[in-house]
Amino acid sequence: DSGVTQTPKHLITATGQRVTLRCSPRSGDLSVYWYQQSLDQGLQFLIQYYNGEERAKGNILERFSAQQFPDLHSELNLSSLELGDSALYFCASSAYGGDHYEQYFGPGTRLTVT
Amino acid sequence: AQRVTQPEKLLSVFKGAPVELKCNYSYSGSPELFWYVQYSRQRLQLLLRHISRESIKGFTADLNKGETSFHLKKPFAQEEDSAMYYCALSVGTQGGSEKLVFGKGTKLTVNP
C-alpha cells in the first residue's frame, strides 16, 4: 500500500456527462500528479499540483480540469465525456528521496464511458 | 524531446530462465530513471530507481549513458514476476518540478 488513496474505484457514466475523481496524497506529500492510462496511449501525464498551485501541465484536454485543496487532496474533473475518455486514471504523490523525487501511485479509478 | 522506448510489447520466458526487459531513453538532461511494475491493472509500484543501484525481488537495472539504456534484468524468472513493466524517465518541468514520462510497457509472462 503506497498510502495514496483514490475514490471511486470504478465509475460508469454516459457520454456528455461530467465526473469528479478524488485523490488523497500520502501524509506529508505536497505534490499530486494525475496520469491517464489507456490501451492505445499508454500512461500519460496530465497535470501536477504542488501545495495548492498548478505546477505542470501535460497532455490534458481542455474538457478536463483539476484542483488541489488546502488539505492537499486533489480532484480531477472530466466533463463532456466521450467514449475515448474511458481509461484508468492514476493519481500519484511524490516525496524527495535525497537527491530526486519518487512518485507513489494510488490504486486508480477505472472510468467507463458508455 | 524526452522519450522512453520499450521495444518489446510482450515477452514470454520459462520459469528459471533469465529475463531482460529493454528500455532506451532520449533526454538532453541528466537522466533519472525508474522501473515500475503493475500486476493485473492494479496500482503502479515502484520497483527500482537507477540512483540507488539496488536489487529488488532479484531484479537489477544499470544505467548505460553511452547506449542511453536502462534495461531490467533478472537471472532466474519466477511465475510471480508475470506483470506489466514500465520504464519511466523523470524530467524537469517549467514550474521547477518533475514529471514522469513512461514507455509503453512490456508485458512479461513467465510460464511454468
Give a description of the structure.
The complex is a heterodimer of chains A (114) and B (112). Chain A has strands at 5-7, 10-13, 19-24, 31-38, 42-50, 53-57, 64-68, 74-78, 87-96, 101-105, 109-113. With 114 residues, chain A is an all-beta fold. In chain A, the strands form 2 sheets. In chain A, strands 2, 4, 5, 6, 9, 10 and 11 form a 7-stranded mixed β-sheet that branches. Chain A has a 4-stranded antiparallel β-sheet with strand order 1-3-8-7, with no helix packed on it. In chain B, the strands form 3 sheets. In chain B, strands 2, 5, 6, 9, 10 and 11 form a 6-stranded mixed β-sheet that branches. At the A-B interface, strand 4, strand 5, strand 6, strand 9 and strand 10 of A face strand 5, strand 6 and strand 10 of B.
The secondary-structure element order of chain B is EEEEEEEEEEE
Shape of chain B: globular
Q: Name the beta content range of chain B.
A: over 45%
Shape of chain A: globular
Mean residue pLDDT of chain B: 90
Give the overall pLDDT of chain A as a whole number.
Answer: 92
Low-confidence stretches of chain A: none
* Number of DSSP strand runs of chain A: 11
First-to-last CA distance of chain A: 31 Å
Number of helices of chain B: 0
| Strand segment tally of chain B | 11
- Percentage beta strand of chain A: over 45%
**What summary fits the major beta sheet of chain B?**
6 strands, mixed
For this entry, what is the oligomeric state of its chains? Answer: heterodimer
Biggest beta-sheet profile of chain A:
7 strands, mixed
Low-confidence stretches of chain B: none
- Identify the most extensive interface between protein chains: A-B, 30 and 27 residues
**Radius of gyration from the alpha-carbon trace of chain A, in angstroms:** 13 Å
What is the percent of helical residues of chain B? under 10%
Helix-strand makeup class of chain A: mainly beta
SSE order of chain A, one letter for each helix or strand: EEEEEEEEEEE
